[in-house]
Amino acid sequence: MEKKILVTGGAGYIGSHTVLQLLLGGFKVTVIDNLDNSSEVAIKRVVELAGDFGSNLVFHQIDLRDKPALEKLFASTNFDAVIHFAGLKAVGESVQKPLLYYNNNIIGTITLLEVMGAYGCKKLVFSSSATVYGWPKEVPCTEEFPLAATNPYGRTKLFIEEICRDIYRSDSEWQIILLRYFNPVGAHPSGYMGEDPRGIPNNLMPFIQQVAVGRRPALTVFGKDYNTKDGTGVRDYIHVVDLSDGHSAALQKLFDSNIGCEVYNLGTGKGTSVLEMVDAFEKASGKKIPLIMAGRRPGDAEIVFASTEKAERDLNWKAKYGIAEMCRDQWNWASKNPYGYESPDSSN
Ligand code: NAD
Ligand code: UD1
């Protein structure tokens, strides 16, 4: 019998790519999303790309904090596990509107956990973030590093991790994998799915992409005086398809073992500077990205990249793609959908 997986936030960037992998892997998938930061077109694209498996996807527009709606869903379907992506993720907005972030991310997660517990579904994969390492004292970051958060968004990730550790301590039937993503970029190689942020992008790659398609005049580089190879910040960029594979590996681990509550980094273990990323994107797209060199962005760390050993060892998972493939697929998506899912030829 196919396993039934509930995916919260499955219309979003990472969620939609993961849902496609799950469908192709033979899972039955229910997505809930309030579409706050996503489009139902993403769901339609997933169904199309999944071919014969597309009929194994059910979508409900539900807010995570709507407990009666969640209860109804769990009463109608026996889920084997939940992958929990749903959450707000804009760091700057979280500083301006902390209560919105605490309400959405923390209350939403507690509501989900309560309903899961009540219906005896105690297997969870949660989207945490490398942001919980703050400004790491050294690299690569291992999972045992001290945790810190410099903004409300990061604190929601930290708190939710702690909540998960607490519920496991209180009830060892829970099996939870916390995945700390480094910097997800790229798009599905079909060019049919990708990241479609609302408003001005906060993150590097979506911004570069919008400069390349002519939506913005130049990329502002935040900081050229870091102690790095070229003075710009260094990060661990990971292809979203590799990241999705990491979720399949985590799910498998939940089904194959009594893991308890464990945390894994999902990164490549390689650091790339802002200027190296710009260079790779220019090569992939053939477009020139005009740069404005500016001061550091408050709260930014200098160098962050992952130790990948634990995930390789325990989950048998390793990222396959490099920067060239990430930029190639990002450009393929951008050039076909310059306005994301709202692009004129994206209407069906
Ligand atoms: P995204 O915004 O594209 O996807 C999140 C989805 O959750 C959206 O579709 C949104 O509409 C939905 N959502 C938000 N609040 C909801 C609620 N209360 N009820 C129902 N649906 C809700 O973001 P993403 O990049 O796909 O990120 C997915 C997860 O991974 C998030 O939890 C994010 O914090 C985490 N994460 C992302 C990154 C990154 O760089 N993209 C890095 C580390 C961690
Ligand atoms: C940011 C968030 C982090 C979140 C992560 C993934 C902050 C302080 N941190 O991390 O909490 O988990 O995104 O969503 O916002 N850069 C530019 N110009 C830009 C954008 C970025 O030079 O317009 C630089 C940054 O200074 C950084 C690198 O590009 O050196 C990557 O930035 P970004 O994509 O925002 O990711 P993080 O800073 O790692």
Write the layout of secondary structure elements.
Blueprint: E1 4-8, H1 13-24, E2 28-33, H2 40-49, E3 57-61, H3 67-76, E4 81-84, H4 91-96, H5 98-118, E5 123-129, H6 152-170, E6 175-181, E7 183-185, H7 204-212, E8 219-222, E9 234-235, E10 237-239, H8 240-256, E11 261-266, E12 272-273, H9 274-285, E13 291-294, H10 309-315, H11 323-336
Parallel strand pairs: 1-2, 1-4, 2-3, 4-5, 5-6, 6-11, 7-10, 8-13
Antiparallel strand pairs: 9-12
Helix pairs in contact: 1-2, 1-8, 3-5, 5-6, 7-9, 9-11
First-residue to last-residue Cα separation: 32 Å
Strand order of the largest sheet: 3-2-1-4-5-6-11
The percent range for strand residues is: 15-25%
Order of helices and strands: EHEHEHEHHEHEEHEEEHEEHEHH
Cofactors, ions, other ligands: nicotinamide-adenine-dinucleotide, uridine-diphosphate-N-acetylglucosamine
Which spans of ≥5 residues are poorly predicted at pLDDT below 50?
A: none
Q: How would a crystallographer describe the biggest sheet?
A: 7 strands, parallel
Helical residue percent? 25-40%
Shape: globular
Rg calculated over all Cα atoms: 19 Å
